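Reminder to self: tokens first, then the designed residues, so the page reads top to bottom the way the pipeline ran.
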């Protein structure tokens, strides 16, 4: 299975005379490079990026800071080029926007099946990093990360260990500025 099929962006099966006409050569090269990844690795990268976008979108908005953080994380941990990471994150964000209600649990479960315990813990830390990209982790983002940790089969101690590193960004622990209460 190709990464394009996994993310629902199968190029060769579109119909009509202009199918694929808007694709640029650069995008084709990046997608081809992603298709050359071993299937399990491509699925792991796709699932990882999707789960990151799931948390970024928990508050119904994915900020520029969150997007840049996701791109950096996917590039570094997925050992992808910058262009590939941008494409993977954009595809994951689009899929999350379109299919969140039905895909969130399924994609997270698939990632959990493919990842080691250490990779799941690293994902949990990355989820907090994405949430903290705008210097505040909202209660809804925190709850979504807890839900994902449970879906990954991680325990409460794993969640708390990852969360502790981002404690200063938790909105529920921040003291409101004087005069805003």
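Designed residues (181 positions):
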């Amino acid at each position: 299975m190709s990464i394009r099929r996994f993310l629902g962006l199968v190029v060769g099966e579109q119909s009509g005379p202009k199918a694929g006409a808007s694709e640029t050569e650069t995008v084709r090269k990046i997608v081809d490079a992603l298709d050359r990844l071993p299937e399990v690795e491509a699925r792991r990268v796709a699932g990882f990026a999707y789960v990151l976008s799931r948390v970024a979108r928990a508050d119904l908005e994915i900020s520029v800071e969150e997007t840049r953080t996701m791109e950096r994380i996917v590039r570094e941990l997925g050992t992808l080029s910058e262009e590939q990471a941008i494409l993977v994150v954009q595809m994951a964000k689009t899929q999350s926007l379109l299919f969140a209600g039905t895909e969130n649990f399924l994609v997270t479960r698939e990632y959990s099946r493919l990842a080691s315990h250490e990779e799941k813990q690293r994902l949990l830390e990355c989820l907090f990093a994405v949430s903290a990209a705008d210097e505040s982790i909202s209660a809804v983002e925190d709850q979504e990360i807890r839900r994902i940790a449970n879906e990954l089969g991680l325990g409460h101690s794993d969640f708390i260990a990852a969360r502790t590193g981002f404690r200063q960004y938790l909105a529920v622990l921040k003291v409101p500025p004087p005069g805003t209460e």
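The chain has one domain: 25-173.
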